[in-house]
Structure formats: structure tokens, C-alpha cells
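Table S2 (text version). Query chain:
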Amino acid sequence: MSNIGGVSSAQLRSFIERIERLEEEKTAIGEQIREVFGEAKGTGFDIKIIRQVLKIRKMETQERLEQEELLDLYLAALGMISSASNEETMTAA
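Corresponding C-alpha cell output:
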């Protein structure tokens, strides 16, 4: 093992090779994810909606409820939904 300028070449090589392997795995996983999205699209599912569902499932319940409430409020303010349906949504939460 050589040590150049206080840097262990063996340790550095180990880190680099591990990162390279992980990058290859990440690429392979990305390809698999694209294939699953393709399958879902091929069976008629809307990919944009699936992506939204995935994003929502990652959220904590309280964060999701707060965002839904704000979205309803903004849509009501813009006249895109009636304020009655906004009130129903708020009382259901």
C-alpha cells in the first residue's frame, strides 16, 4: 500500500471502486423502474398520476393533509372549486 501526500492509495481506490459499483447498480435500478412505468402505461395507467401517488406516499400524513388543505383553499380562491366543497374537505380532515 502506498501513501502519497498523506493519502492512502488503497483506501482511495476502495472508495472509488465502491462508488463505481453503486453507480452501476443505480443505473440498472433506474432502467428497471422505467420498465415498470412502461408496463403500467401499457396497461392503461396514467404515469403522471402514478408519480404523484408515489410522491404522496412518501409524505407524512400530517404534511399531506396540510398540503391538501392548502390546495383546496387555493383552488377555491381561484374559483376552480366551490367554497362549499372546500368546507366539506376541511371538516372531513
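Notes on Table S2: The first strand starts at residue 3 and ends at 4. The radius of gyration is 24 Å.
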